[in-house]
Structure formats: C-alpha cells, structure tokens
Amino acid sequence: MSVPIVVNFVAIVGVTVVGDWMLKKASLAPSWSQSPWFAGGLLCYMASGVGIVIAMRYMTLAAVGVWYSVLTIVFMTLLGVFAFGETLTARDGAGIVLALGALALMARHA
Predict the structure, then answer these.
(1) Is the CB of residue 110 less than 8 Å from the CB of residue 60?
(2) What are the DSSP E strand ranges found in 1-110?
(3) For residue 97, what is the enclosing H or E element?
(4) pLDDT, tens only, 66-84
(5) DSSP state of 7
(6) How far apart are CA 96 and CA 77, in angstroms?
(7) Rounded Cα–Cα distance for residues 19 and 70 (Å)
C-alpha cells in the first residue's frame, strides 16, 4: 500500500471521527436532533462518504472495508478515552490488537 493512500485513509477516518465526536456531543444535549452538533456530525459523515467513494476507485472493496473499519475503531477508542474519559478493558485492548492483525493481513491486497 502506498503512502498517499494511507494518508488519505487517515484523513477520511479523521473526518469520520470528528463527526462521531460531534454526534456524541449532540447525544448529550437535551434535544439532540436540534443540536448544531448533530448537523455538523452529519456533514462530516457525508464528507467521509465522498472520500470512501474516491478510495474505492483505487482499492478493492475488501481492503477499503478493513482499512476504514480498523482505523475507525482505533481512532474512536482514542477519542473515547481522551475526549470523554471512557476506560479501556483488557478485552477492548485485545480486540484492537486483533483488528490491527486484520489490517496487517489485508495490507497486501490494497
């Protein structure tokens, strides 16, 4: 997998995770659907969808799925821990290690 593809995927997932952060903020509001955080989260999801479509032109669907899923899991875990004070269990850590293993296995197919 080339460096530009990895950088693009990190950017796509970064936008997704910003959207997740906004949606989490919206979920904490009394009226989540009327929160500006909700609208911002939806816009981020739309932007990441465009990025995924572009990535699909250069990668197999399986590779796109694995890269997007694993990077999203890792980034959302970090977001939960550092932005929202969530805790990780040993089981969570094991799941992340296994997800990274899937990424290593699929890297040759990208």
Answers:
(1) yes
(2) none
(3) helix 90-106
(4) 889 989 999 999 999 999 8
(5) H
(6) 9
(7) 17
